C-alpha cells in the first residue's frame, strides 16, 4: 500500500500527510508513492535518517547550509517527463535542456550543503559536474541557457549578420533565411546534447529521486519538530505513552477544548475496549491506526514514547461511512467488512481495529457474533482491538476500560457543552466481564427529554 | 515622444483594449521601440494567451511583438520555442499552462515573439515582481481579449486604454462607449483612512455606519442580491462591495432611493452596463473606488477588423475633447516620426 492509498482510507492519516510540507512537486510525488513498510531493518534505517534530519531542523540557530538545501528543494522541478525522453533518445528542446542544467546546478549546490551538514550518508547525491560543463560550455557558472555560439562555429557569424540586418531593418528575406538556418543549427546542437545526456539518464534520474527524497525527509523532520513526534521502536507489544490524535488535538485547541493523550499497551490477540458513550473509544482506535501507519511509512509517532509490533496492514471497521450508495444496510456492509478481515487474518498479520461490531442488529445475535469474532481473532497472530457495549461476553481476552465520566473532574456545573471536561480518557485494565452502565446518566447530562429517561429507568427496574 | 516619459514614471504598465482589434499590440510595439531608443531595459509579459500571428476571430493579420536587446520577457514554452529572435533562458516556472511552463528569457538579438502569460492576476503580480528583481526599469503587460483585471491598481501601477473602430465605426458611439469606461476608471477615491480599513476585507457586502463602524450584511455575492433585500440599507446608506459589483446590485440599490454611496475595490471589479449605471447615478447615488487606476493615455486604432477606416484626426480630437485626456493614433505618430 502506498501513502496515497492509505490517506484515502484513513482521514486521520490524510491529515498527517497534508501537514507534511514538501517544497517541490517531486518531493510530494515521492511522498505519495512511499509504501507501507514491514521490514524492521528498512524502517530502522529510515527512522535513523529522519533522526539526523530532525536534529538538523531542531538545531538553534538554524545551520545556513540547511537553508541553502531547502532553497534548492524549493527550486526543484519534477523532470520525470524530460528524463524519460532521454531514455527513449528523444531530442530535448532548449527549455528541457535548461531544466536538466538547472537540476545539475541544484544538485551541485545541494552537495555542498550536504557535505557541510555531514549527511552524505543520509542523502547521497551523484556528481553531475560533467553534465553541468556540457551545458555550460562558456563556464559562466550561471543556470541561464541557450544554444551558445561555442556549440557550433556557424552560429556566431550567422547571429552577427542577423543582428546587423535587424538593427538596420534591412532585407527581411535574408533575416527569415538566417532565422531558419539558426533554427536548423540549434536543432542539430539539441540532438547532439541530448545524445550526450542520454548516457547520463540514470544518474540524472537518481539525482532527481534523491533530491525529491531529501525534500520529503526534511518536510517530515519539520513536522516531527512542530508536532513533537518521537522515534518509535520495534518491539513485541504495541505500546504508547501519551498517544495523541493530531487532528483532534488541533481541533480541540482551536475550539478551546482540552485534549487528553492516553497510554495504551496492546499485543497479539484481542483487546476488548469498553467504556461509556462519549469516552473516546472510536478516537482511540483511529489514533492507534494512524500512529501505526505513520510509523510504518517511515515517520515518527504522535506520542511521548512508542513501541510497535510491525504488521502487514492496518484495517478498520468503523461504522461512520455512508453505505446508501451501494445498496447495503449498515449491518450488511459492516458484517461483510468484518468477514473479510477475519479471512485475511488467517494468512496475514494485521492491526485490526473494529468499532462496536454488530451494534445495528438484534442484541442476541449481535452478541453471539462478537463472541465468535473474539474467539477467532484470539487464535491468530494479528493484533485486534474491539470496542463494545456488550457485557458478559464470556471471553478470557484482555479488557481495557476507558475511565470515562468522572463527575468531580472539574469544579463547574455540567452542561451539554462542557461535558467533555468531565471525561477521563485514560485506560485501565478491567477484570470484570461487565460494561459501564452510563447511557442514561449521560442522556440526563445532555438534558434529554425527562419523560424519555424516566421511562427508560422504569424499564430497567422492572 | 508622446506619453513615453509618463510611462517611465511607473514600475509597471498594462495595456488593455476596450475590444478586440483596438490596437493594443501596435501600442505595445510603439512603446518598446521608443524605450529601446532611450536605452532602457523593459520587461514584457502578458495575461492569458495573446500575440497570435493572425487574429483568431476575424483571421486578420496581427502585428507580432518585437523585442529588443536586453529586454526580459515571459512567455509559454511553446511560444518560446517558436520565437524569431536570439535569447537566453533565465528561468522556467514550475507552474504549467496549457502551452507548457512559463519561461523567462532575455533578448540577445532583437526579433519577434508570441507572448502568452499567467492565467491569474496573482501569478501575474509575482511575475512583475520577478522581472523587477531582474533589474528591468518597467514591466509592460499586454492584455488578452476582454481581460481588464490586469489594469487593477493592485496589479499594475498605470494603464493605457486602447479603443478604436472595432468598438464602433460611429464617432459618437465610439466616444460614448469609451467615455463610459473612462468614467469608471476615473471614479473618485474614498479617503485614505477608510481605504485602509476596507482594503483587508476580502468578501461580502458591508455597510459603513455614520460613526465609521463596519457591518457585514451577510450577503456573499453581488450576483445574488435582490431588490427586496432589506439588509442592504439597514445600517445606513454607505456600502462597500469587496468583490464584483453587478447591474443587479446597482438596480437593487437604486430601488432603495437616493443618497446611497457604493464603494467598489477598483474599476476592474465593476461589471455594469451604461444604462444601469446612469440610472443609479441619476437617482442621486454615487459610486466610489478604494483605489483609482492611473490612466496615462488612450490610443486609437481607426481601422476596424472588417477594413473600415475612420478619420483618425477627427476621431482623436473628438475623444480628447470629450475625455480631457491625450488620445493618440499610434500608427499615425509613428509614421510622422519616421
Name the chain pair whose interface involves the most residues: A-B, 21 and 20 residues
How many structural domains are formed by the residues of chain A? 2
- What's the CATH architecture name of the largest domain in chain A? 3-Layer(aba) Sandwich
Give the CATH H-level superfamily of the largest domain in chain A. P-loop containing nucleotide triphosphate hydrolases
Average pLDDT confidence of chain A is: 92
CATH class of the largest domain in chain B: Alpha Beta
Looking across the biggest beta sheet of chain A, what order are the strands in? 6-7-8-4-9-10
The protein's oligomeric status is heterodimer
Structural class of chain A: alpha/beta
What does this structure look like?
The complex is a heterodimer of chains A (462) and B (338). With 462 residues, chain A is an alpha/beta fold. Chain A has two domains: 3-219, MutS, DNA mismatch repair protein, Chain A, domain 3 (Orthogonal Bundle), CATH 1.10.1420; 230-461, P-loop containing nucleotide triphosphate hydrolases (Rossmann fold). Chain A has 17 helices and ten strands. Chain A starts with a helix and ends with a helix. Chain B folds into two domains: 4-185 and 293-337, Rossmann fold, CATH 3.40.50; 192-289, no CATH class. Chain B has helices at 4-7, 24-37, 77-81, 121-133, 171-185, 192-199, 247-254, 274-282, 312-323, 330-337, and strands at 12-17, 42-46, 65-67, 72-76, 84-97, 100-113, 138-142, 158-164, 205-208, 214-216, 238-241, 245-246, 261-264, 270-271, 286-289, 294-301, 327-328. In chain B, strands 1, 2, 3, 4, 5, 6, 7, 8, 16 and 17 form a ten-stranded mixed beta sheet that branches. Chain B has a five-stranded mixed beta sheet with strand order 10-9-11-13-15, with no helix packed on it. In chain B, a hairpin with a 5-residue loop joins strand 9 (205-208) and strand 10 (214-216). Chain B is globular, with a radius of gyration of 21 Å.
